[in-house]
Amino acid sequence: MAYFAFTEQPGQEFIFELTDPDKITHARNIIAGVEKEEVHVTGKIRKVQKPYNPKYSFHLEPASISFFSMAIEVCDANMDYVEEHLDEAGGAFLPGAHWCPWDSRVTREVTMP
User: What is the pTM of this model?
Assistant: First the structure.
């Protein structure tokens, strides 16, 4: 298990958990600059706050997380917008609770206490 942060403009940060060794390697390769194509984060949101990301009352389900280079518009939203409209997520807003912020980029690995 490892924790990473992705950022969105303007300077927002979202922490997520990865449990799959291949996905952990992929995230580390993004940070190292080795992976240059699939650098954006996508996954299913769960409407539960996690201690590793206390600013938000939702998190990304670790098993659902993957990385992409391009995605459809219907899953794109800013993290603060998702927080403000969380009660609508999973319906017409973010169908299936699938979130793919287009400007997300993994920026660092996070050490948890």
Answer: 0.93
